[in-house]
Amino acid sequence: MKHLLPREAWDFLQQTPDALFLDVRMEIESLYVGRPPGVVNIPWYEYPDLTPEPAGFVAAVDRETRGNRSHAVVLLCRSGKRTLDAGAALAQAGYTQLYNVLHGFEGDLDDQFKRSTLNGWRHDGLPWEQM
User: Fold this and answer.
1) How far apart are CA 96 and CA 3, in angstroms?
2) How far is CA 130 from CA 37, 61, 123, 127, in A?
3) Cβ(101)–Cβ(120) under 8 Å?
4) CA gyration radius for the chain?
5) Segment 32-59 mean pLDDT
6) Which tens digit of pLDDT belongs to each residue from 7-39?
7) What is the 3-state secondary structure (H, E, C) of the chain?
């Protein structure tokens, strides 16, 4: 899996419009915290269990890519860590073009335990929407 800073990921997505831009956060996170426009939400795990189901996740991604495991997939989560496990499951299933958005949508925690102040998609001023 390759790692891209948020602005690099945005540039990649502009240059590769057929890439699957995948938000692996829980649906509630994606809707209420905010998300980039055009992103597809397939949670790595969901509330209340918070337990990943790798086979189900891969099957959902397969539906989006029509089973094309050489399709470019750009993975986004809150901080860029959940995508590592999701990407590993996709790689194990045979996906070959995987990109992790470093720092995720909200970025790392600062000294006051707040996000979006140091780095991340929102911090970098990239497009996003909120329900």
Assistant:
1) 14
2) 9, 23, 15, 11
3) no
4) 14
5) 96
6) 999 999 999 999 999 999 999 999 999 999 999
7) CEEECHHHHHHHHHHCCCCEEEECCCHHHHHHCCECCCCEECCCCCCCCCCCCHHHHHHHHHHHHCCCCCCCEEEECCCCCHHHHHHHHHHHCCCCCEEEECCCCCCCCCCCCCCCCCCCCCCCCCCCECC
Q: Which of 99, 78, 97, 91 is closest to 24 using CA atoms?
A: 78
8 A C-beta contact, residue 61 and residue 73: yes
Task: Please give the pLDDT value at position 55.
Answer: 98
> Does residue 122 contact residue 116 with C-beta atoms inside 8 Å?
yes
Q: Is 90 exceeded by the pLDDT of residue 131?
A: no
Residue 18's CB: how many other CB atoms inside 10 A? 8
| Residue the block writes with tokens 């994606």 | 30
Average pLDDT, the chain: 96
Cα angle value 74/129/26 (rounded, 5°): 60
